[in-house]
Amino acid sequence: MKNQYFLGLKCIKCGKIYGPDSDLLLCPECNNLLDPQYDYERLKKDWNTLGISERPNDIWKFRELLPVIDFDQIVTLGEGGAPFLKCPEFAKELGIAEFYILNDASQPTGSLKDRSIAITATKAREFGYQVLSCDSTGNKAASTAGYAARAGMQSIVFCPEETPKQKLEQALFYGANLVRVAGHYSQVNAFYREMVASRRYHWYDCGTDNPFRYEGKKTYGYEIAVNLGLKAPDYLLQPAAGGMSIVKAWKGFKEFQAIGLINHLPKLVACQAENCGPIADAFSAGMDSVPGIDKGPTIASAIAVSNPGLLGDEALHAVRGSGGCGIKVSDEELLRVWERLGRAGIFCEPSSAISVASAYKMAESHKLKPTDVLVAVVTGSGFKDGITLSSNVEIPAAVVNGKEEFYSKLEEIQARISAH
Ligand SMILES: [Zn+2]
Question: What is the Cα–Cα distance from 111 to 131, expressed in whole angstroms?
């Protein structure tokens, strides 16, 4: 079945339009980002006849708004449809009306990347590629490898040496060809971009400025609006690496507005680490673009992108255009909130707790009102960063042996619970 609503790609700088079947990354004329276009007028007319509410709860529920030509080519592991958790205890602590967590730790490969890579894998199949490639701080590599496996393709992934072991092991388990590169992510990214631009290999790029990949993140906007009963929250808090989650969640809300489904937009919050927050820094400094920075050490490795380039500029403009802000969080603050999430039943990697930690920083600096409704996106599973996990919990050395020790241990635990 063909998608009649996807119209093609438009360059955000020179405005040139390319057809829906164009296999492009950046604009061939001016090397800028390409933005997929849709027939919103027609969608507005047809929306209630599409049977959307009867479809499975994944990103393809909104498939007419995704840049796919042929729905029969879709590659899926069931991505999207994340748990949307009302957290009244957090709302109380923050002094606001409602607080929700959209938990993308539940995605098929354990992170938000699946929303995007499902689309690039589908495009690779439409365009006839056999190999997927990407550079990554780890989650995108695992996702690319997982979706390549699902599509019956090969994968090649490039990661910095500091990438958490679990993410590399996961990618390898799916059958990836792994290239580890010395240095931080910015070094890997520089090599990788040069390789992609050279067109030396016929691999489908799922890593750089692929215009289709980014569209997967729009589904945040759709999902959140649907979960809130076709409304936008007052603030949407997103962990910001390159910044594209923010730009595209914003596009998703704007599209729902264009179709007539919601009537206001959220304020966007770019949540970054104290030692690597180029978008938040540029916002605070009132700048118009995001310069690269020298990053310091941070446990938020999954979002530590020191030079977000064109995407960072787009994110900065979206944050400012929405009336939102950039927030930076120290490792200490981040670990505290990460542990707090664990006690609330949410098992995520520390990087992705930064959205919730940013809500606390906003409350501390009196940025929130008692009537506010906030949604924080949590982006990756706790299994993704075993090193930080192991250094924050301790498995008891003692093993009970025999019935006497068994009941003695239980008495000790019961006393501890009673004293609490
Ligand atoms: Zn252009």
Answer: 21
Tell me how far the alpha carbon of residue 196 lies from the centroid of ligand 1, in angstroms: 18
- Tell me, in angstroms, the distance from the centre of ligand 1 to residue 26's CA: 8
How far does the centroid of ligand 1 lie from the alpha carbon of residue 29, in Å?
Answer: 5
Full pLDDT tens readout for the chain, 420 residues: 899 999 999 999 999 999 999 999 999 999 999 999 999 999 999 999 999 999 999 999 999 999 999 999 999 999 999 999 999 999 999 999 999 999 999 999 999 999 999 999 999 999 999 999 999 989 999 999 999 999 999 999 999 998 989 999 999 999 999 999 998 888 899 999 999 999 999 999 998 889 999 899 999 999 999 999 999 999 999 999 888 899 999 999 999 999 999 999 999 999 999 999 999 999 999 999 999 988 888 888 888 888 888 889 999 999 999 999 999 999 999 999 999 999 999 999 999 999 999 999 999 999 999 999 999 999 999 998 888 888 889 999 989 999 999 999 999 999 999 998
Instruction: Find the 319 Cα to ligand 1 centroid distance in Å.
Output: 23
Residues 346/297, Cβ–Cβ less than 8 Å: no
Token representation of residue 255: 């599209």
Instruction: Give the residues across from 329 on adjacent strands.
Output: 273
Q: What residues does the ion ligand 1 have nearby, CB within 5 Å?
A: 11, 13-14, 27, 29-30, 32
How far apart are the CA of 24 and the centre of ligand 1, in A? 12
Both structure tokens of 93: 């602590």
Rounded distance between C-alpha atoms, residue 135 and residue 190, angstroms: 10
Give yes or no for a contact between 361 and 330, defined as CB atoms under 8 angstroms apart.
no
Structural domains in the chain? 1-68 (no CATH), 84-107+220-390 (3.40.50.1100), 113-216 (3.40.50.1100)
